[in-house]
Amino acid sequence: MVKELETLGQVELPAEVTSVPKARRYVRELLEGSAHAQTDDALLLVSELVTNAVCHSDSGRVPGGRVIVAVARHNGTLHCDVIDAGSARRIPWLRTEVDFDSGGGRGLWLVQKLATAWGWHETTTGRVVWFQLGGA
């Protein structure tokens, strides 16, 4: 039997570094009591994607820029979207070589390593970067 998509929640936050822990806390509260086997991975990946949205998209460069985090569950899979204004200058880029001593550059590498699936696409109003984790 195929279950329908179950929306767990969505939050819109200012595109500021201070929103990263707020996004993580929001997702943690959504997943409390769900016994999701990969809650810690979900929190890490949301943190990475919100950080990327704030630092690399137009959302973080314009006054009043916003980032949206949307979380859903479908057939045992957790699905998270991070939605921002996109960028004409930058696209999500997965580094194949990672410097573990540097202070950054590992966000999408972590997403690729931990997520069951991930990707990104442009919309009429910006960009969506998403990931899925099995075991919901």
From TrEMBL:
Keywords: ATP-binding, Kinase, Nucleotide-binding, Serine/threonine-protein kinase, Transferase. Residues 13-132 form the Histidine kinase/HSP90-like ATPase domain. SUPFAM superfamilies: ATPase domain of HSP90 chaperone/DNA topoisomerase II/histidine kinase. One of its GO terms (molecular function) is ATP binding. InterPro entries: Anti-sigma-factor_SerPK, HATPase_C_sf, HATPase_dom. This is ATP-binding protein.
